[in-house]
Design goal:
The chain is α+β, with helices and mostly antiparallel strands. The protein has a single domain, classed as Vaccinia Virus protein VP39 (Rossmann fold, 3-Layer(aba) Sandwich). It has helices at about 10-15, 30-40, 60-65, 80-90, and strands at about 50-55, 70-75.
């Protein structure tokens, strides 16, 4: 059985009408290849517990989940991102 693909970061942003809040220093990295490069710099995460602070729409979170981690904890202050993160994390 094959599951349908996750919506893209752009889809999540459009679906939940998200925008970056300058006062919270938010920036969205839409390029998954760049997100993967950022996560690669963290080293081998296989089997690790990872805590991400400020995941926003979940771009880096997706790249972390692709590294076969044991568990990802996300801490997000901005409640606007909760519905989109639930699509990615759960």
């Amino acid at each position: 059985m094959r599951l349908p693909p996750l919506p893209t970061i752009g889809d999540v942003i459009r679906l939940y009408q998200l925008s970056a809040a300058k006062k919270l220093s938010q920036n969205f990295i839409m390029d998954m290849k760049l997100n993967e490069k950022i996560v690669k710099l963290a080293g081998n995460l296989t089997g690790c517990y990872v805590c991400e602070v400020g995941p926003g729409p979940g771009g880096i979170t997706r790249a972390i989940l692709n590294k076969d981690v044991k568990h990802v904890y996300v801490i997000e202050k901005d409640k606007r991102f909760f519905p989109g993160l639930q699509v990615v994390v759960y």
